[in-house]
Design a protein that fits this description.
about 475 residues; alpha+beta; 3 domains; 6-stranded mixed beta sheet; 3-stranded antiparallel beta sheet; 16 helices; about 35% helix
């Protein structure tokens, strides 16, 4: 049967009644949880998932209660599994009450997995089939403190060229239903509260982080070569995690097995709120992940316009500048010098590896304003240098259209550039919250579907917690309602 909508006001009445009848008390440490779920209306999930339920069969559990319970699980004890979470609700009745469940009728673990699967828009829980060719090599390790390079040189450029030549391509992703729900119910609320910054000219930041799922890749043979005494063969194998592989973790300087999680966040958000996650294979390079993530996000984000993108030096390639400029996004990317040689310009002036013109005597020229009418930046060498007989010294102009990487619209290293770029670390703080505070890697899932559910659930928790912090004084007035039950 289709689920029946339970209004949020009815949920609030049930919570107060169960607290009174069950003689259950709420400790003050858990007050933020009570305030968050008391004020957050999750009942729209029932209408959102109507198409995912059959018209036949028994009446399902209330989707809003299932979602509340899953979010409570991520907020309170994400280091345990869903099976243990049911035992936690039995030992701590306040969690069952805040979820909206009767104390004598808690759902089983299979009910949770069945509910979460309804957010997945794919026919299988993985991106790729389990049967794959045998993997032979690990990704190339990077230098100390540096990320591994791309496995195939020129891949980012070819990928950007293909995307720009096929702008109409917008494939349906299995995770689209999750993002649609996240955007309509949570991003929109955060935007209305001003927690994402200027939504009409959004500043975003992107960065990748390793997501470890297991120590070793697990697979089974599809042949009987070992039984026939053949120890080495190249037949395909059945992988339990077909979307994962081995990658290089530059921070820990070791190989790992799992995913490469690429996250786009709101850089101007005071709470470092996430916007869009994308899971890739562990061996994927940040630049490739950025190209795919940005394109997908641009095609799906409907609440505003992205104006700036802040990225680290791993994304410093001309193809990414071209892609972002085509999307009318101004890139702010830290320069990754490719060498120490200067670039010739056809005149006596040369360009240094950092994009600064050098006068004939090799001195760096100073910026001397920007000409908006001709979209060019003016550089000037002091007359004291003696490299020119001109009264005001030698002048030179650079055009962004000639090389957007070397001559960005906002002068790299200027005070304006530094002020904007220092917010890039917001995405690193967001990733830290997901991996450390919410124990993202504690999930013991084998499917991409469940990893996406866990990631989006954690992102929802981040937004709900930000709502509480931004309205703490107002929401804390609710303590008068819960005062008889506060221990």
């Amino acid at each position: 049967m289709k689920p029946i909508l339970v209004p949020h006001s009815q949920y609030q009445d049930v919570v107060l009644r169960q607290l009174q009848e069950g003689n259950v008390f709420l400790i003050r440490k858990d007050w933020p949880l009570a305030a968050i779920f008391w004020m957050t209306d999750l009942s729209p999930v029932t209408d959102f998932l109507q198409d995912a339920y059959s018209t036949r069969g028994p009446l399902p559990r209330d989707p809003a209660s299932m979602l509340r319970s899953y979010l409570l699980f991520l907020m309170t004890c994400p280091q345990v599994g869903l099976t243990e979470w049911i035992n936690v609700m039995k030992r701590t009745p306040i969690y069952a009450i805040l979820s909206g469940f009767p104390l004598d009728d808690l759902p089983g673990v299979s009910t949770f997995y069945d509910f979460l699967a309804r957010f997945w828009n794919g026919s299988t829980p993985h991106w790729r089939p389990k049967r794959q060719p045998k993997r032979k090599r690990k990704t190339k390790r990077g230098k100390k403190g540096e990320k591994a390079p791309t496995a195939t040189p020129g891949r980012i450029k070819r990928l950007v060229q293909w995307i720009l030549s096929h702008p109409e391509k917008n494939p349906v992703l299995p995770s689209d239903r999750l993002f649609d729900f996240f955007q309509t119910q949570f991003l929109s609320t955060s935007a209305s509260l001003g927690l994402l910054g200027d939504i009409s000219a959004l500043t975003t930041a992107g960065d990748g982080t390793p997501l470890v799922t297991s120590v070793y890749p697990r697979s089974k043979p599809t042949c009987d070569c070992r039984a026939r005494g053949i120890l080495v063969c190249n037949h395909p194998r059945l992988y339990s995690q077909p979307d994962c592989d081995s990658g290089w973790d530059s921070a820990r300087e070791r190989y790992f097995n799992g995913y490469h999680l690429y996250m786009i966040s709101a850089a101007d958000s005071p709470h470092d709120l996430p916007l869009y996650p994308r899971l890739q294979s562990a061996s994927q390079h940040d630049g490739v992940s950025l190209v795919l993530s940005t394109t997908e996000f641009q095609q799906r984000f409907t609440l505003g316009t992205v104006d700036k993108m802040l990225l680290d030096a791993a994304h410093d390639t001309e193809a990414i500048y071209k892609l972002l400029d085509t999307h009318h996004i101004e890139p702010f990317i830290d320069l990754n010098p490719r060498g120490t040689k200067n670039t010739a310009t056809g005149s006596e002036v040369k360009i240094s590896p950092t994009g600064i013109p050098l006068c004939p005597k090799g001195n760096e020229m100073r910026p001397n304003g920007f000409d908006k009418s001709q979209n060019r930046r003016k550089w000037r060498c002091s007359p004291a240098c003696g490299c020119s007989s001109a009264k005001y010294g030698l002048t030179y102009h650079t055009f962004s259209r000639d090389n957007l990487r070397m001559f960005p619209k906002t002068l790299r290293g200027s005070e304006k550039w530094k002020l904007i770029y220092k917010r890039r670390t917001s995405v690193e703080r967001s990733n830290k919250r997901e991996k450390i505070d919410y124990k993202l890697e504690s999930g013991r899932h084998l499917s991409t579907m469940m990893w996406y559910n866990r990631i989006y659930g954690i992102m929802i928790c981040q937004h709900m917690h930000a709502w509480y912090l931004s309205q703490k004084e107002e929401w804390d007035l609710l303590k008068t309602v819960f005062r008889p039950f506060l221990a």
